[in-house]
Amino acid sequence: MAHTRRGCGCALAVLLVVLAAASAAYFYFQRRTGPQLPPPSGAELSVHVLDVGQGDSILIIAPGGKTVLVDAGNPRNGKKILAALQRSNVDHIDLLIATHAHADHIGSADEVINGITVKNVLDSGVPNATKNYEDFLKAIEQKGVTYVAATPDQTFDLGGGARITVLAPVQPFFTKDQLRSGGNEPNANSVVTRLDYGDFSMLLTGDAEAQTEQRMIQKGARLEADVLKVGHHGSRYASSEDLLRVGKFKTAVISCGADNRYGHPSPEALDRLKAAGVKLFRTDLQGELTITTRGKSDDVQIRGEREAASQELWAGRAAQKDDSARSGFIQYGDFGPAPKPKDQSKKATNSK
Ligand SMILES: [Zn+2]
């Protein structure tokens, strides 16, 4: 699989600017600085961490019926994601958040946009010269979806007392020279958001790692939440002790694939999460994870499609190759062939 195409960066940047300029004014439920969180309506809010193998796709259904999809899995996950939406009687997406431009997060974004009405897209605004990202932007343009570039403190009122707030990326964007070995700009500039509904809150981190966590802590971002969507599929470079201390999370959910070659989730990250005393859920072992709440933080239900023993949950995976000495994005060819996937949907891609 070769998703990278060189030489189209300028065209993409121009397209991004045009999309942003054309649509920014029309975004009806976006506010730069949100008012006080409205009281919860008491109706149910649900969060579905879909099982898309080694990638992310998270559906939020707000109490008033507004819907958010955070990422759209890998290429070839389109049917699965659209089927999950249908199962939950979702016939449109109010806000599609593309945390960053890697194929395991926007892989099927074009299929979702072409398959169901998507009203708004929130993107990191970091240009990316890949065919996947280009297809995503083309679908946005062709379907007339409103494009919004993420900035800290933007809020999106989901109705019924639920709200999304953007915490990152923080400008100026991280550049390659600022990143640790093995780190990369799309991950470091991931869109990080928090979901609030009454007392309930969830932090959605994309593939942000410790450097991004540190920057948010320094900026005084509100990181404390009931549930953490663990950064970067449980990479050892994410979920730092500092984040876990500030976040005071009760539950952590990891979205990753059983056949991944990156060592996700890593034993190191799991050790830190365990030391922080969180309850752990994993899509690779438990399938789709569903979180429901009526806005009371002491009344939150979380369940997986399947049971997994505690011992199994806390066991990390080993990377097929050590990436700590590498700089830049870890390319597909840097790893050997993936272990044989159990089914088509769990096939690894060129992103991590
Ligand atoms: Zn990823």
Care to describe what's here?
There is one protein chain. The strands form two sheets. Strands 1-8-9-10-11-12-13-14 form an eight-stranded mixed beta sheet. The chain has an eight-stranded mixed beta sheet with strand order 7-6-5-4-3-2-15-16. The protein is α/β, with parallel strands linked by helices. The protein has one domain: 4-Layer Sandwich (Metallo-beta-lactamase, Chain A). The two termini are 14 Å apart. The chain contains eleven helices and 16 strands. Helix 4 runs parallel beside helix 5 (131-142). It is 24% helix and 22% strand. A hairpin with a 2-residue loop joins strand 8 (155-159) and strand 9. Zinc ion (ZN) is lined by residues 102, 104-105, 207, 233, 352. Zinc ion binds at residues 102, 104-105, 207, 233, 352.
Task: Break the fold down into its secondary structure elements and pairings.
Layout: H1 9-23, E1 30-31, E2 45-49, E3 58-61, E4 67-70, H2 78-87, E5 92-98, H3 103-106, H4 109-115, E6 117-123, H5 131-142, E7 146-149, E8 155-159, E9 162-168, H6 185-188, E10 192-197, E11 200-204, H7 210-218, E12 227-229, H8 241-247, E13 251-254, H9 267-275, E14 279-282, H10 283-286, E15 289-293, E16 300-304, H11 310-313
Parallel strand pairs: 4-5, 5-6, 6-7, 11-12, 12-13, 13-14
Antiparallel strand pairs: 1-8, 2-3, 2-15, 3-4, 8-9, 9-10, 10-11, 15-16
The structure holds zinc ion (ZN).
| CATH 4th-level superfamily | Ribonuclease Z/Hydroxyacylglutathione hydrolase-like
Rg calc: 18 Å
- Which descriptor suits the 3D outline? globular
Question: Structural class, please?
Answer: alpha/beta
Instruction: Bin the strand percentage.
Output: 15-25%
